[in-house]
Structure formats: C-alpha cells, structure tokens
Amino acid sequence: MSDHPPENPAGRQMLYDPTERRIRSFVTRAGRLSTAQARALEELGPRYCIPYVKQETDFDTAFGGSAPLILEIGFGMGDTTAAIAAGMPDKHFVGVEVHTPGVGSLLKLIGERQLENLRIIQHDAVEVVTHMVRPQSLAGVHVFFPDPWHKARHNKRRLIQPPFVSLLASRIAPGGYIHCATDWQDYAEQMLQVLGDEPTLRNTADGYAPRPAYRPVTKFENRGIRLGHGVWDLVFEKR
C-alpha cells in the first residue's frame, strides 16, 4: 500500500470478495521477485513471518517476550518499516502487506539489519485486525501512503473509512495512537474527517500534525516534495 505504484489494470484481480461481502482496498498486482527477495522469503520467512489464522494471536509468543506492539498496515517495500523498527528497539512491530515482493524486500532488510523486533503477516489487513488482534492490545497503528484511489468513483475503496477506523480504535489501548500519512490532499481531508468522527479518538494536533521524527522521509516522498506535492500526517490518540 505505501509508496503506491501506478495503476496496473492488467495485473488486477477480483476487487470484491463475495465471502467477506466487502470491497477490497487493495488489488493484487503481479510483481517480479528479485533473487535476493526470493532468497529472503525462503531463508527468513519461516522465522519472521507469522501465518494468518482466524483467531486471536499471542504476539508476545511470536517475539519471545513482551513489549509495546505497533501494527503497520501496507508497508510497501519495507524501507520505512525497517528504519522505524531499528530506531525503536524497545517496541515490537508487525507489518501487514499482501504483495510478495514487498514481503521479500522487508525480510531482506530484517536480515541485513538483524531486526529481532519485527515480524510480518502477508494477508489482508482488515482480516488480520478483525481476527488476529486482541481488543486494546496495540500501542500504535501506522498507515503510511495507502493507495489513494484518486478517481471519485473509486473513493469507496479507500482503506480509511469509518467502519475500519472504528475497528482499529477498538484494538488500540488507551493512550495508544494511530498515525496516517498521505500525499493526496482530498484523502488527507477524508482521513481528518473520519478519524475526527471516531468518538474514541482525539486529535493530537490542531488539524494535521507535524511529521513525527520517527517517520523517515522516503525516496518516494522526497520526489513528490521536489515536484511541489504536499504530504499530510495525522496522529490521533485513543481516549
């Protein structure tokens, strides 16, 4: 989801899942695995990937100890996720991503940087949050540069919608937070509205928040900034 690639109609699969009766916020794009990504999947996947299961999961067991747990949804190729995890060794991070090249890329970074505080789930984030994450168990949630679905007729496919925000809020412990970022102004406005309407959350800023120091500026973001594009961060706290 993050660092969203251009639309690729040829690589799109079914957007609507009849078993879940909901519209998907992502599409499955055909991605090419590099040799290094494939090796990381084979060698590191069994250790650092948590299988999706349709039941609440004890993430402390997966990490071999307890620490504040932060969930990142749609980590793209994983550069930001790895950088944040490296900068916060006292916290545990679970990254959720559907695209295999991104999973392989982050596994490669985990191996290179020896990040023992980071795990991956390759599955639909809505199902992961619904079934695997216990209520009030998260210290934070990161959603950076989700697919903007910028065409008006596709806006309903955006991830940040009231039902999902309500679900996320139920999984965040009091005092925890949700941090979203986007480079699409109309999506930022929607995020501000949706997050602001969730009664269990409060805005930590007067509108949009300054970029927290822990979130690095990505190459994708820097390119947009050079082109004059804006970036909006939103940080809301669980009451």
UniProtKB/TrEMBL annotation:
<feature type="binding site">
    <location>
        <position position="97"/>
    </location>
    <ligand>
        <name>S-adenosyl-L-methionine</name>
    </ligand>
</feature>
<protein>
    <recommendedName>
        <fullName>tRNA (guanine-N(7)-)-methyltransferase</fullName>
        <ecNumber>2.1.1.33</ecNumber>
    </recommendedName>
</protein>
<feature type="region of interest" description="Interaction with RNA">
    <location>
        <begin position="153"/>
        <end position="158"/>
    </location>
</feature>
<feature type="binding site">
    <location>
        <position position="124"/>
    </location>
    <ligand>
        <name>S-adenosyl-L-methionine</name>
    </ligand>
</feature>
<dbReference type="InterPro" id="IPR003358">
    <property type="entry name" value="tRNA_(Gua-N-7)_MeTrfase_Trmb"/>
</dbReference>
<keyword id="KW-0808">Transferase</keyword>
<feature type="binding site">
    <location>
        <position position="72"/>
    </location>
    <ligand>
        <name>S-adenosyl-L-methionine</name>
    </ligand>
</feature>
<feature type="binding site">
    <location>
        <position position="147"/>
    </location>
    <ligand>
        <name>S-adenosyl-L-methionine</name>
    </ligand>
</feature>
<comment type="pathway">
    <text>tRNA modification; N(7)-methylguanine-tRNA biosynthesis.</text>
</comment>
<keyword id="KW-0489">Methyltransferase</keyword>
<dbReference type="Pfam" id="PF02390">
    <property type="entry name" value="Methyltransf_4"/>
</dbReference>
<feature type="binding site">
    <location>
        <position position="183"/>
    </location>
    <ligand>
        <name>substrate</name>
    </ligand>
</feature>
<feature type="binding site">
    <location>
        <begin position="218"/>
        <end position="221"/>
    </location>
    <ligand>
        <name>substrate</name>
    </ligand>
</feature>
<dbReference type="InterPro" id="IPR029063">
    <property type="entry name" value="SAM-dependent_MTases_sf"/>
</dbReference>
<comment type="function">
    <text>Catalyzes the formation of N(7)-methylguanine at position 46 (m7G46) in tRNA.</text>
</comment>
<feature type="binding site">
    <location>
        <position position="151"/>
    </location>
    <ligand>
        <name>substrate</name>
    </ligand>
</feature>
<keyword id="KW-0949">S-adenosyl-L-methionine</keyword>
<keyword id="KW-0819">tRNA processing</keyword>
<dbReference type="InterPro" id="IPR055361">
    <property type="entry name" value="tRNA_methyltr_TrmB_bact"/>
</dbReference>
<comment type="similarity">
    <text>Belongs to the class I-like SAM-binding methyltransferase superfamily. TrmB family.</text>
</comment>
